[in-house]
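Hi support team,

I'm opening this ticket because the web form for multi-chain structure prediction keeps timing out on my end. I have pasted the exact lines I submitted so you can reproduce it. The total is 617 residues across three entries, so I didn't expect it to be a heavy job. Is there a limit I'm missing, or should I split the entries? Thanks in advance, R.K.
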Amino acid sequence: MKKVMYVVLLFLFITACSNTEEKENIYSESDSTQLEQVLKKQESINGFKSVMDKNDLLVALDIKRMKRFQMEKITTKITKELEEKFPNKEVMVTGDLKIKWEIEKVIDQQLKEDKLVEAIEKIKSLSKEET
Amino acid sequence: MVNTTGTLQFMGKPSIVSTGVIVGPMEKQSPFADSFDEILPLENEPNETYEQANTRYIEKACSVAVKKGHEKLENVDVFIGGDLINQLSPTNFAARQLSIPLLGVFSACASSMESIILGCLLLESGNAKSILAGASSHHPAVERQFRYPLEYGAQKPKTAQWTVTAAGFALLQKQAKSAPIISHATIGRVVDGKQTNPLHMGAAMAPAARDTIERHLTNTNSKMADYDIIMTGDLGKIGLSILKEMFQDEDSGVILQDAGAQFYGEDSFFNAGASGAGCSAAAFFSHIYGQLKKGVFSRVLLVATGALLSPLTFQQGETIPCIAHAIECRMEKRG
Amino acid sequence: MDQKQFEKIVDEQNPKTPLLVNMLKAFLVGGIICTIGQLITFFYMRFFSFTEKTAAGPTVATMVFIAMILTGTGLYKKISQFGGAGSAVPVTGFGNAVISASMEHRTEGYVLGVGGNMFKLAGSVIVFGVLSAFIVALIKTILVKMGVISW
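Hello R.K., no limit was hit. The queue was backed up. Here is the completed structure from your submission:
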């Protein structure tokens, strides 16, 4: 009987869940209001981080746990909507955690101009990797 | 009636002069440990395969048995042995070194008693004077052949048994002084209880044990109460309780016991207990033999049980037929 | 004694398997193994430039490596006796099957022994895994061609 109790207790402790809300963070340029408009009304994400440039728009989403199964669908939908709003920019939307971390790094470092373009190129090539 | 339907009576008093029982490190914790001749520290030496180690255990047990009987290996007429490995390789390779005429036998875990029965027949007919008979098994070698690789993480149920690493051999001669006599024997019949689970051998072997015990009692006009102990080889804890249930009209009580159930004591690591050709050989030739010699037991029935399955028949969906060979040992009281 | 009576006795004497406790134990062990896998993924993402997508490969390789160490030291079978399916289902269980078989057959040489026997247990996993992947892909291709679903 004791053994069963220990096992059940352990089981209860480990199945703890946490749900964090995130503060969004967008970097540079003035069109951030449009971006926020599109992204804030998405139900399936907890938050996002994004970097904007003259030519590029990178968005990393934090998708809700259960909605992660539809990650493909959600990212393509958001990409389409953003491409309508920003026709002259190259849009890349991803749910990948690593890309989010990289974008956070760029935001923290407050890069400008050339360095920013370099960083964005690096992030884009990272997300294209297959292995 | 004796000498019918497989029950034999030996008039020439074939006796167990001496025994040799060599076991491995896991068997150290057995309640029978004090009666074992030697407990080797390793199941196999570093440069040895498991099968070679099995061979070594057999050679050692035979040497010990012969030495304790004040005999020489050259004087032994016939060597009768069995084990669980394909083509009886360990017994064959041991016989190569022992250089005694060999009769290899296989009845799975009942091989020990089959060897003794054949030895008694040779002595009875006068065709031999000195016989070495017994059986052996080796845990890693058997697991490799019948079940999974040793390190594989398959969860074992409570009905599973642990194959012992042991070799037990007895030196048989006619009318030896102060030695237990084999008065009767019953050759087993293959009985199929329609069991299919190789991890629950106890249930498969119980019907065979029952058939042999019943035949022996009927043919020798005896009851269970006439014996000090009736010990089966390796039914295991659950197999023994099944056998006891099958004998519910008889008063089996304390008389009916199982070597496999007692072999490792109460340690639940070994689940239902011990099994293997070496289990019956080691327990019968050490503990029971000792009790007979001391006079604690005067009449015993030893029933070794074997499951006659192979890895192939199991995969082909066959049931597990079993067999049980029995010998009756008596210790005559000297004045 | 007829077969039916015998079967009844066997059923009565058989110890009951504690299903609920076994399931909890499997859940715990399986969960802990998968959590360790996730931590390894985070490790690869944090300290190397792997993305979520590309970190899967090195994670599996590391888990199999850990299974190898545990199998070789004889610890994996102890975990399995406790955890049952919880340790057999994750990739560490697959690793354990292949590694234990290779260890066992060293005595028969490397080519026929180890090479020939190492997939003794895991072989069917590979065969039926590839077969079902093929069939599923076939079904999906047909459905896409018929326009029922899209890629």
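A quick check on our side: The two ends of chain A are 49 Å apart (CA to CA). Let us know if the file doesn't open in your viewer.
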